[in-house]
């Protein structure tokens, strides 16, 4: 019996095409292809042994189908129940509980609400909000970012109360978090596959999108062996806790301490134009290992409470 891996993707092509080809090259009784979904009944889950989800964060109608697939025993990478359940504020609190350094972080009430929400609805919110206390705690500069989402959308660096209020006024109904800025000397992006395999790569968010990996070494020193070991272990610790089988964990190094900045990347950028020739083959190899293993040795998706994670 041939085992089937379905790739659920958006516009990307270099990574899924390479993964399909690598799985075929190994001739291990597993076939990978682009997934095909249709109107879906509760008693007819998608006919795959493994689904690699790269797009349901954008195409949300796929999310209930992926949860149905998990219910039917399909292994979905990443687990949709875990992915939908987390957010950047919770992740920062979880990381801190796990002993991973994170920037000081607060969550903000939304700037605006729907027409059916009035001042009476919001009577639990203190007024006025303690903006001055928040500024004293985080200091300037600080960053405002949505508590859920990615792609560098709706992120603001603010250097004063005036800039803070101008940025906040533009956030509308979004739930935002505010974080202290970490003045870093090195910045690393750990690519994590299967919660255990980690490839730490210098990565410079100040460069253009297609230069952040390939030109990072020109702009900062290499990591020491000790720091490399620490960022890899921090990345594993976070992915184990979040249940992510593919992720990128970004850490900013300040005074020798790695601070976890962004690790909610359930569909990380695996395009060859971003990763470059240095990292792309490793990602394809490890993802092929993962999907073949999950297809040939099926096991239930992990379902744990957060209390179990923190024990």
Please give a handful of descriptors for the protein shown:
single chain, 311 residues, alpha/beta, Rossmann fold, Dna Ligase, domain 1, D-amino Acid Aminotransferase, Chain A, domain 1, 3 domains, 9 helices, 12 strands, 33% helix, 21% strand, globular
Hey, roughly how much beta strand do the residues contain?
15-25%
Distance between the termini: 40 Å
- As laid out across the biggest beta sheet, the strand order is 2-1-3-4
SSE-based structural type: alpha/beta
| Mean pLDDT level | 93
Radius of gyration: 21 Å
Give a concise summary.
The protein is an alpha/beta fold and about 300 residues long.
Describe the 3D structure:
The chain is α/β, with parallel strands linked by helices and 311 residues long. The chain has three domains: 3-84, Rossmann fold, CATH 3.40.50.20; 104-180, ATP-grasp fold, A domain (Dna Ligase, domain 1, 2-Layer Sandwich), CATH 3.30.1490.20; 183-263, 2-Layer Sandwich (D-amino Acid Aminotransferase, Chain A, domain 1), CATH 3.30.470.20. It is built from nine helices and twelve strands. It has helices spanning 14-26, 62-71, 80-85, 88-97, 131-138, 161-169, 225-242, 272-296, 306-309; strands at residues 3-8, 30-34, 50-53, 75-77, 105-108, 142-146, 156-158, 176-180, 186-193, 197-202, 246-254, 257-262. The strands form three sheets. A four-stranded parallel β-sheet has the order 2-1-3-4, with helices on both faces. A four-stranded antiparallel β-sheet has the order 5-8-6-7, sandwiched between helices. A four-stranded antiparallel β-sheet has the order 10-9-11-12. The radius of gyration is 21 Å and the shape is globular.
């Amino acid at each position: 019996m041939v085992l089937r891996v379905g790739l659920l993707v958006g516009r990307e092509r270099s990574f899924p095409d390479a993964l399909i080809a690598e799985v075929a090259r190994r001739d291990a009784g597993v076939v990978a292809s682009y997934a095909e979904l249709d109107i879906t009944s509760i008693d007819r889950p998608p006919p795959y042994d493994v689904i690699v989800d790269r797009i349901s964060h954008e195409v949300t109608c796929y999310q209930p189908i992926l949860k149905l697939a998990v219910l039917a025993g399909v292994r979905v990478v990443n687990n949709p129940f875990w992915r939908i359940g987390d957010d950047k504020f919770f992740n920062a609190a979880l990381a801190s509980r796990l002993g991973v350094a994170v920037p000081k972080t607060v969550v903000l009430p939304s700037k605006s609400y729907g027409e059916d929400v009035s001042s009476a609805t919001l009577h639990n919110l203190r007024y006025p909000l303690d903006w001055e206390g928040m500024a004293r705690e985080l200091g300037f500069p600080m960053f405002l970012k949505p508590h859920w989402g990615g792609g560098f959308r709706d992120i603001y660096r603010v250097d004063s109360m005036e800039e803070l209020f101008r940025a906040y006024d533009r956030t509308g109904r979004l739930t935002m978090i505010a974080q202290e800025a970490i003045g870093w000397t090195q910045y690393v992006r750990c690519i994590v596959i299967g919660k255990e395999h980690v490839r730490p790569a210098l990565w410079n968010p100040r460069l253009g999108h297609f230069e952040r990996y390939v030109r990072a070494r020109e702009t900062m020193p290499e990591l020491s062996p000790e720091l490399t070991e620490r960022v890899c272990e921090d990345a594993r610790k976070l992915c184990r806790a979040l249940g992510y089988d593919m992720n990128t964990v970004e850490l900013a190094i300040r005074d020798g301490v790695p601070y976890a900045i962004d690790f909610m990347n359930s569909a990380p950028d695996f395009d060859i134009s971003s990763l470059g020739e240095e990292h792309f083959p490793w990602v394809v190899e490890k993802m092929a290992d993962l999907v073949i293993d999950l297809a040939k040795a099926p096991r239930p998706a992990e379902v744990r409470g957060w209390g179990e994670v923190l024990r």
